[in-house]
Structures are given as C-alpha cells and as structure tokens.
Amino acid sequence: MNLLRRLANVPPVPYLISWILAHMSFAIPSQRLRETETLLAFYHPQPAYPFHVVILPKKDIRSFAELDPSDPFLADLVATVQSLMQEYQLSDYRVIVNAGNAQAFPHLHFHLVSG
Predict the structure, then answer these.
(1) Where does the chain show beta strands of DSSP type E?
(2) How many domains does the chain have?
(3) Is residue 51 scored above 50 in pLDDT?
(4) Average pLDDT over residues 8-28
(5) Beta bridge mates, 94
(6) Beta pairing, strands 94-97 & 39-43
(7) Which domain, by its residues, includes 33?
(8) 96: which strand partners?
C-alpha cells in the first residue's frame, strides 16, 4: 500500500487516474454501485466496515479544499448517498472525507460507511 501511495503522488499519475475515471471507468476492477457523468461509486476493495462504499469524482480534484462549491459533482454526491442509504436501508451511517496525511490516495474521495 505504501508503494501505491508513493506512486499515486508522482506528478503525471493523478492526471492519468482522472483520465481513466472520466474515459475508461469500465476498466477499473470494482463492483460498481453507481456511475454518473461526474462520479463513480463502488464497494471499497478493503472494507473497514460491514458496508463500505467509496465515492469519487471522475475529474481531477485532489482534496476537499480544492472542491468548487458549484461543482455538479456535489449534487451527484448527495443524490448518490441518498439513493444508497435508501436502497441498503442505512439508518446509521457516516460520510467520511479525509485530508492531509489522513488521505491515503491523492484524489478526492468519500467513504459511505455503516455498521
């Protein structure tokens, strides 16, 4: 995981990740739950909770601090979280976003967790 984290911080890699998300999301090996023009939601590959979903924007946004409040991703994020809450009947849940050293991967992402 440390190697992956270091590799993800090499300058061209975050742009490549964003390009893949925007144009080739079908190539990402994950169990997708939602995909819109602005985001991708999938089960976390190493879940820390019984229900653990990752939601990330398809465009290059490195952290929450860089997020534009008018970005259409935010509306998709809210709609996606609400639909997952309803579909999986999540009465107790958290939406988590990490930053700084707590952010393991240099691309903005949210965790929807329960249990």
Answers:
(1) 32-35, 39-43, 51-57, 94-97, 110-114
(2) 1
(3) yes
(4) 58
(5) 113
(6) unpaired
(7) 2-114
(8) 111
* Short-list 101, 97, 95, CA closest to 113: 95
Q: Coil, helix or strand for 40? A: strand
Domain with residue 22: its CATH number is: 3.30.428.10
Closest listed residue to residue 106, CA positions, set 10, 3, 1 = 10
Which residues, 6 or more positions from 33, have their beta carbon under 8 angstroms from its beta carbon?
41, 42, 43, 53, 84
User: In the predicted model, is pLDDT for residue 8 greater than 70?
Assistant: no
CA distances from 96 to 6, 57, 102, 110 (A): 22, 15, 11, 6
In the block, residue with structure tokens 């999938």: 42
**pTM of this prediction?**
0.79
pLDDT tens digits along 52-92: 999 999 998 988 999 999 999 999 999 999 999 999 999 99
Nearest-angstrom CA–CA distance, 74 and 53: 17
